[in-house]
Each structure stands twice: as structure tokens, then as C-alpha cells.
Write a structure and sequence with these properties.
The chain is mainly α. The chain is built from 15 helices and no strands. The chain is globular and about 65 Å long. It starts with 7 loop residues before the first helix and ends in a 7-residue tail after the last helix.
């Protein structure tokens, strides 16, 4: 929105952000329960196929949204509308015809396409697609990700949380090692590309494995074909392997997470837009352009890093507050979190839990503000940690 100020995309995002900001959190939570949880559960139980009328409506709406976002002359808008509508309708039609909503999965082809898209996007943003060395590093790490997809299927059957975290760390370290070995003179950029591609490649393998466990989770007697939960943090009496229990936690935390994200969307987008607009008018940006640097380098390496400084402060404050509990969201979704503890203790006039609550809040505020100070040193070369 900052790079395309006063365009259709800018106005659209501004409208959406302020609309979401104006919604009370309890109303947003109730709407998510009704239209996301209950509606999707009914869709799965009745006939998980998308009708022709609904498919056409979704495709047309998608085309209208994308042509507003992309903008341009009438011919360009019509092309964007047609391509996006056909792509949306084709993908949804394919998913409906293959009964994907009941038996989801990425499969080797889906994982390969996602890894290839990640390599192209990461290299394009950080180094430019003309940088063959960066393309080689991203492709090598992506190829290792595809090898791990086939090699780890048997190991993942016995997965635990510690194993998943360990494999994730190994993947990032391998990506950094490949970047360091093939990075040439710019090893820092190469290691970042390798780490990012490795992280997302591992994430795609993990997501596919969760999708493989989805049918057995939905068919569990305690779930009874209605997987998206509306209350609680877990299904009472539910037992299963790591993948099923993780899916149970995910389906219970999905709606509260979406509610908190949508409420916070306006604040982050407004701060980011205002910060980047201010940075783009600075003298050092004009100097970088005068030196002949590509616009991608000017934006990513010079403007974006400095724009992230106020965002780092905002994120640190919000995460610290979030760990202290979201009273309204927890109440609507009946989640026994810190907010519920604080609210119940106030009603009982029980001072000990209240004192413990404020102690946790204070520790989190100090910790995440300290982490924000460290982030300043990583983002701004003028700041040094001694």
C-alpha cells in the first residue's frame, strides 16, 4: 500500500483494515463461530462438494477483488479479472471433484510446486531472479527438501513435538550451510536465502503430513465429522497419536487466533504503511537510487529494514500482552487461559492469582521489550549492543 499509494489496492486495504478495526472482538468471534465453524462443519457432514452456482459466484468475486488490487487500465483489469476468476474456479472445481475437503493432501507434486514457488519468491525478493548463484542455492535447498519429503515419511509416523522442533532446526541449519558453501562473496544473503527456503520446505512437508492425518481425525468418535471447534482448548476424552492431538489443538485454537489477527490487522498495516512512506522520502533512499541500485535493493535492504523498527516495538508489546491473556476472546471461546484466570479471580476477590497474573505480565513486558531492543541492533546498523 505504501509503494502504491492512493491506488485501488491502497484504498481497498485501507477500507478492509478500518472495517475490521471497527468490529468489536466479541462480535467478530460470534461471526467466526457461525460462518466458519458451524458452516464448514455442516458442509463436511452434508455433501462436501461445491455447487456450480456457488463456484461461479466465488470465481466472480475473486476476479473483482484481484482486478481492484492489481489496478491499471481497463484492458489490464479485464485480463486480471478473467485469469483470476478462471484460476479460482478451476482450483475449487478440482478440489470439489476430487473430494479434497474430506481427504486433503499436497502430495509430492503439490509440495514440489510450493517449494519451487518459495524459491522463486525468496530469490526474487532478496537477490533478484537474475542472480544465478542465489537461484542455485535456493534450488539446491529445495531439492534437499523434496528428498526429505520421501525420506522422512516413515520417521514421521513416530513423531513427537521434540522431534519436529529438532528436524526444523536441522533443516534451517542445513539451509544456512548450503548458503555458506555456495554463497561466494555475499555469504550473508546466501545463508538467508538458504534458511528461508529450508524453513518453508520443511513447513510444506509438515503440513502435508498433517493433512494425511485429517481423515482419521475427522472420523474419530469424539469428533463425529465436525472438526472445527467453537469452545474449549481441546476435545474432552480425545486420544490419538501426535498428529491427531496436534490437529485437535489446531482446530480449537483456529478461530481465536483468526479473531485476534483480524482485530490487530489494522494497527499493523497502518504503522507499516506510514513508516514506509516516511522512510521512502529520506535522503539515504534518494542516494541509494542515485547510485543506480535496483529498486528491489532500495526497498528491501534500505527502506524495509528501517520501517520494521516501529513494527518491532509494536510486536513486542502485543506479544507480551497476548501472553497475559485476551479476556474477551477467551470468554467467548471458553478457553481456560490467563485472561479467564484473571477474570475469575476478580469475581472471587482472590488476590493471590491476581498478583501472579500481574507478575507474569510484568516479566513478559520486560522480556519482550528487551528482545525488541536486540531487534533494533539487527535492523538498524546505527544501533549497537554492548
Amino acid at each position: 500500500t505504501a509503494l502504491r499509494q492512493y491506488s485501488g489496492f491502497d484504498f481497498s486495504i485501507t477500507f478492509v483494515s478500518f472495517f475490521l478495526f471497527s468490529l468489536p472482538s466479541f462480535l467478530l468471534a460470534v461471526l467466526l463461530k457461525e460462518f466458519v465453524a458451524i458452516g464448514f462443519n455442516n458442509f463436511l457432514q452434508k455433501d462436501p462438494r461445491i455447487g456450480i452456482g456457488v463456484l461461479l459466484a466465488i470465481a466472480i468475486v475473486s476476479g473483482l477483488i484481484w482486478q481492484v488490487f492489481i489496478g491499471g487500465q481497463l484492458r489490464r483489469r479485464l485480463i486480471v479479472f478473467g485469469v483470476s476468476a478462471l484460476a479460482t474456479g478451476g482450483v475449487l472445481g478440482f478440489l470439489s471433484a476430487t473430494n479434497w475437503f474430506v481427504n486433503p493432501g499436497l502430495g509430492p507434486i503439490g509440495v514440489l510446486l510450493l517449494i519451487a514457488a518459495t524459491v522463486a519468491a525468496t530469490v526474487g525478493v532478496l537477490a533478484g531472479l537474475a542472480n544465478r548463484r542465489s537461484l542455485l542455492i535456493g534450488s539446491a535447498v529445495g531439492a534437499l527438501g523434496m528428498v526429505s519429503y520421501f525420506a522422512l515419511q516413515g520417521v514421521l509416523n513416530q513423531a513427537t513435538l521434540g522431534m519436529i522442533i529438532g528436524l526444523g532446526l536441522v533443516a534451517v541449519l542445513v539451509g544456512c550451510a548450503v548458503g555458506f558453501a555456495l554463497g561466494g562473496h555475499d555469504k550473508g544473503q546466501a545463508m538467508r536465502i538458504g534458511a528461508i527456503v529450508a524453513f518453508f520446505s520443511a513447513s510444506f512437508v509438515l503440513i502435508d503430513r498433517f493433512m494425511q492425518a485429517w481423515p482419521s481425525y475427522v472420523d474419530h468418535p469424539r469428533i463425529n465429522g465436525r472438526p472445527i471447534a467453537t469452545v474449549g482448548s481441546q476435545t474432552p476424552g480425545f486420544t490419538g497419536d501426535f498428529w491427531q492431538t496436534s490437529l485437535d489443538s489446531f482446530t480449537h485454537l483456529l478461530l481465536p487466533t483468526i479473531a485476534l489477527l483480524l482485530v490487530s490487522f489494522a494497527g499493523y498495516t497502518r504503522y507499516a504503511r506510514a513508516g514506509l512512506l516516511e522512510v521512502m522520502n529520506q535522503d539515504y533512499i534518494r542516494t541509494a537510487r542515485a547510485k543506480g541500485l535496483p529498486e528491489r535493493v532500495v526497498i528491501v535492504r534500505h527502506a524495509l529494514r528501517n520501517m520494521l523498527i516501529p513494527i518491532a516495538t509494536l510486536v513486542a508489546t502485543d506479544v507480551g500482552a497476548l501472553l497475559g491473556g485476551a479476556v474477551i476472546t477467551e470468554s467467548v471461546f471458553a478457553i481456560p487461559g490467563m485472561g479467564q484466570l484473571f477474570n475469575a479471580s476478580l469475581k472471587r476477590v482472590d488476590l493471590n492469582p491476581i498478583m501472579g497474573y500481574f507478575l507474569v505480565i510484568a516479566i513478559m513486558a520486560i522480556l519482550f521489550n528487551f528482545l525488541a531492543d536486540l531487534a533494533y541492533a539487527a535492523l538498524d546498523p546505527r544501533v549497537r549492543v554492548k
